[in-house]
Each structure stands twice: as C-alpha cells, then as structure tokens.
Predict the structure.
Amino acid sequence: MVKLSPSGMRPMIRPKGSFTMRQFSLKLVCISFTISLVLAGCGGGGSTSSGGSVAVCELPLAYANGVSSGNRIDTVAQTINRQFNPCALQRVQTLTVGVCLDHAQINELTAELLLPDGTAQNLSIQNANSAGACLISGQLLQTTLSSSSLQSLRSLSGNWSVRVTDNNSTTTTPTGSLVGWSLRAEGLQ
C-alpha cells in the first residue's frame, strides 16, 4: 500500500512487518481479550469468592414493642420478634445489629441477638460504635458479628429478637429503655 506523505511530495512506504500505532493498539486489545477468555474458561481471572454475588437484607430500625415506643429495662427487656422478607442470601457473612438504648449506665447492660435457631449471640454493646440518635430518645449502638460467630446460621427465615439485661439489681440503680433495633445481613446469593 502506498500513501502520500503529509507534504504530498513523496510516497510513504512501510517496510514489510511494521505496523502503525492504531494497529498496535488493536492487536493489544485482541490479545487481552483472548487472555481473559482463556482465564474465564479455566476458572481464573474472576472473583475470588466461592459462588454468588454480594447481597444485603435488612430489618430497618423499628421500635422494640413493634408499635410506637420502647420496652422498659427492669431486669430484662426483650423486643418483639421480627422476620425478614424473602431474602436471597444463601451464606451470611456478617450481621450488623443496631440497638437503641435510653439508659444512663450502658456499662451495666448486656445485649444479645436471638437467632431463629434459638441460639443467642452476645452484642458487646460496651465496645459498639455509636451510630447517632435513636427513634425517639437514647443512643444507637452498632456492632457487627463475623461469619465465624454465625457458622450455625443456616437461614435468615424465622424469628429474630434482641434481649437486653440490666446486670445491676440494686433498686436504686437508674433504669432505662430498649427503644428499638435494626439488623443488616450481608453475604452471598
């Protein structure tokens, strides 16, 4: 192929086997595409997770009594049971629990997440992250449970609840309320 040079005076002749930058870019794209097809065919080059895409299911922040207020923490307070809508999670990796507490002495309290299989997971509210204001009063504390603490969990279906216990049984100790709670499950579909 013969092209005229920009000045129009001499023809530009490329030696056999040489190519332009555009041709080089096209070859590079073709090679990259071929390599990605080969890797995808043999299982490499994809996500390192074992199956499925990431999904999230939530029980949004709601009052502990299910209507319009919290439950007083005398010795023990428990929320009403809540259930997830149909959720596509096949393997739960983390659960993040938000607990709204209106109590002057959080350090006297312990909290547990009650799972559908009847087991309870400690929420470590003394080490929880403060996540802002609650529904009507108190403070929202969030804690995350790792997959290692959830190995017995097979499904999100069933009743979920939160229980808070006041460990100081002195009658003059301040009382408070379990105002509400939320739950966020993350994992693979």
Observations:
- The longest helix spans residues 21-41.
